[in-house]
């Protein structure tokens, strides 16, 4: 998965896609789509997250901030109430957001926190299992 001495991502993982389906007929906002690239960083360089896209249908700072929060929290391996969250030492990676799509009614910040975390888990699994990313299609749970 990572180099145990440095906590650095061992190789690039590009095109990690996570999608949370809409819940039709319910009052729970669960829609979101993200695509992220993960790049290794030199030892000692802190993890970062940057945007190389414009959110659709238009920029939404709260959702962008929530995505970064989910990514950085999961890379740190701490501070998550998610029982399935990754545990372990921090992993340093440069994360580039390639796509972020949301819906006026059916999206909320927590969806993007969770999609960010799921994307990190998929990227680390790709490195560990020496494979390309698989699309993540889910319906994000807002509560445990």
UniProtKB/TrEMBL annotation:
InterPro entries: Ribsml_uS5_D2-typ_fold_subgr (IPR014721). This is Translation elongation factor EFG/EF2 domain-containing protein. The lineage of its organism: Bacteria, Bacillati, Actinomycetota, Actinomycetes, Kitasatosporales.
